[in-house]
Amino acid sequence: MYLPIIAITMGDAAGVGPEVVMKSLGTADLYQRCRPVVIGDAGRLREAGALVGSRLTVHVITDVDQAKFEAGTVDCIDLGLIPAGHPFGQLSALCGHAAYCYIERAVQLAMAQRIDAICTAPLNKEALHAGGHLFPGHTEMLAQLTGTPEVSMMLVAPKLRVIHVTTHIGLLDAIRKIEPGLVGRTIDRGYQTLVRSGIGNPRIGVCGINPHAGENGLFGCGEEEEKIIPAVKAQQALGRSVEGPLPADTLFYRAARGDFDLVVAMYHDQGHGPVKVMGLEAGVNITVGLPVIRTSVDHGTAFDIAGKGIADEGSMLEALRQAIGLATRRA
Predict the structure, then answer these.
(1) What is the pTM of this model?
(2) In this structure, what DSSP letter does residue 65 have?
(3) Which of 122-131, 193-202, 231-240 is least confident?
(4) Which of 24, 151, 181, 270 has minimal CB crowding within 10 Å?
């Protein structure tokens, strides 16, 4: 059985990323399912390991070929950017820059087909900007680094999957940006991802923009008819099980009970809110449309608890599981 090589980026070194990475790599059966390698700072991983009571050994490497891929050992491509004793829980331009560098190295390996997937620990957007990298987040950064003109964010929680037509822009800008072509491409990216993950002919529910999906023109200015319905009809013409626009206030409930395999949300908070209510600790963020598989935890750097050794690794383990499944099927 093929074991995919998963590059785990350490995220913001001042946050909980190093801790959840060390906790996750101590999971007994992980090395039976994949070959993980961390891109980050070995010294920081050792500090985090001490905080969480880990017995893992950190093995410093400069290239994937040097990795041992053995349980009990954390292979780390060490960029050496974080000084010993750098404080946890404090915003730092240094950590923001380092987080960018970890992603950059992972993308280089992915584009050279040296790894099968990227799994990212959280970064801090303010620190990222302070470090000179003006991206709204991982999704946009990965799109630029891979030369991908358009990607989608998919969030996966227990009993719920959501893909977003727009993400990190203001609500008024999001409504202006939504148009049938973008909605259709988003539905298609979600459809293709679910098919690759083993779901045949997935059932897709598409949110409206306005309350009650416009209520036949009662609410809004015809946004559903202009921006969403043409895309839904085009997908249906391909024989796909796509329904909408539907009222968001009931669609997420219906999806969680099993009526739909995927919800298409029109803007950031429409999709993020329900997913995080359903399972923040086990949520996963998947960037759809990249030339490489990328999954991530669905939580932030948690500066308030960073350095205390109490961060929950559940989301990181689920992100690794999703990366393994997608990478194995692609192989």
Answers:
(1) 0.89
(2) G
(3) 193-202
(4) 181
Characterize the bridge pairing of strands 152-157 and 160-164.
antiparallel
Question: Is the pLDDT higher at 287 or at 137?
Answer: 287
Examine residue 180 and say whether the peptide bond preceding it is cis (omega within 30 degrees of 0).
no
Calculate the CA 14 to chain-centre distance: 20
For 213-273, give the DSSP string.
GGTTTTSSSSHIIIIIHHHHHHHHHTT--EEEEE-HHHHHHHHHTTS-SEEEESSHHHHHH
Confidence at 26, pLDDT banded by 50, 70, 90: very high
Two tokens, residue 280? 């923040």
How sure is the predictor about 295, in pLDDT bands with cuts at 50, 70 and 90? very high
How many beta carbons lie within 10 A of that of residue 253, not counting itself? 12
Show the tokens assigned to 134: 């003006």
Please tell me the distance from the alpha carbon of residue 283 to that of residue 224, in angstroms, as a whole number. 29
CA torsion sign, 293 to 12 to 274 to 308? positive
Kindly state the tokens that stand for 12.
């913001």
Tokens of 139: 């999704």
- How far apart are alpha carbons 98 and 12 in whole angstroms? 7
Rounded Cα–Cα distance for residues 288 and 194 (Å): 10
